[in-house]
Amino acid sequence: MDAHHSGVRIENRMMTDTTKPRLPLARRRLLGGGATALAAAALPLAKGRAAGFPERPVRLLVGYTPGGQTDIFARGLAERLGAELGQPVVIENRPGAGSSVAVSEVARARPDGYTLMFINPSGFAIHPQVAARPSYDPLKDLAPIAMVANTPVTVVAGPGFTGGDVRGLIAQARANPGALAYGSAGAGTVTQLGMELFLQKAGGLQLVHVPYRGAALVAQDLLAGRIPLMVDAFATMVEQHRSGTVRMLCVLAQERVAAAPDVPTAIESGVPDAIADVYNAVVAPAATPAPAIETLSAAIRRVTASDSYRAFLANYGAAAGGQMTAAELTTYLHNDFRRWTPVIRATGLRIE
Known about the structure:
Blueprint: H1 2-16, H2 25-51, E1 58-62, H3 69-85, E2 89-93, H4 100-108, E3 115-119, H5 121-130, H6 138-141, E4 142-157, H7 166-175, E5 181-184, H8 190-201, E6 208-211, H9 215-223, E7 229-233, H10 234-243, E8 247-251, E9 277-285, H11 290-305, H12 307-314, E10 319-320, H13 326-347
Parallel strand pairs: 1-2, 1-3, 5-6, 5-7
Antiparallel strand pairs: 3-9, 4-7, 4-8, 4-9, 4-10
Helix pairs in contact: 3-11, 5-13
């Protein structure tokens, strides 16, 4: 606005002040050309700054306590992504409310590419649909960047569970509705909704849900025998299953997972259509500049295509998220949001 007005004022002075001698045409052309050359010279500088992104450390928020799948995968990504970007990627844990505390912070952050969220279905698709007063709209407030990983939901038994297997769990729940309890990383998380889907498909079983502030806290109580069952992402529990400290009763997947081939699917165990998985993706605040989105997306896709990160994920029974572009990921996440809507409505879950 000021530059435009300044140009108008100069033009008016040149038109009205006839007492001042005008510069020769050749010199005016020379000066005009110099201004053009100066502007042209400034363009590479501006482009260089855009191409130089990032110029300082990047924050990657995780909506859970350290030790869970989301945190583990985020830390594995951050180390490798920092090497790709030439700047540190710093993990910041902000647990609470199904990761919505962290998502809200990212949604309100300056959209400059330096504050990112390592999100899963709980934060993107589920919590905004179960919260009475959601603090963000994921379809409008977030800019998807890249898919990172995917792993199924699993139902896990601790030493306090006496049912043996999935069929034993179903028998106990039918014999004593509401007597069994299970823990999850929080109300409105994809793992809780995955368990609710399992209970629906198993014939409308009634178990008591005990929400925690993160998967690590649930696992502590499971191992101590204070709670008989928990539901979580496969990747979080696979090492404890291998060591024998807990038992995965089933995975909510179409087929068994290679990292623990002894664990049956819920479908095999007589629970049809019980399929729920946990993806992890990176998102930024809406209105983040396209060049920053593309730089981050390309760098993350190089990491997830690497043998190093794929082996890291496979050790936890997870798969790399593929090579979706930011636009393709946007379509995927929006579709997943809609996929969970009927499940949420069927449970009647509402968080005040």
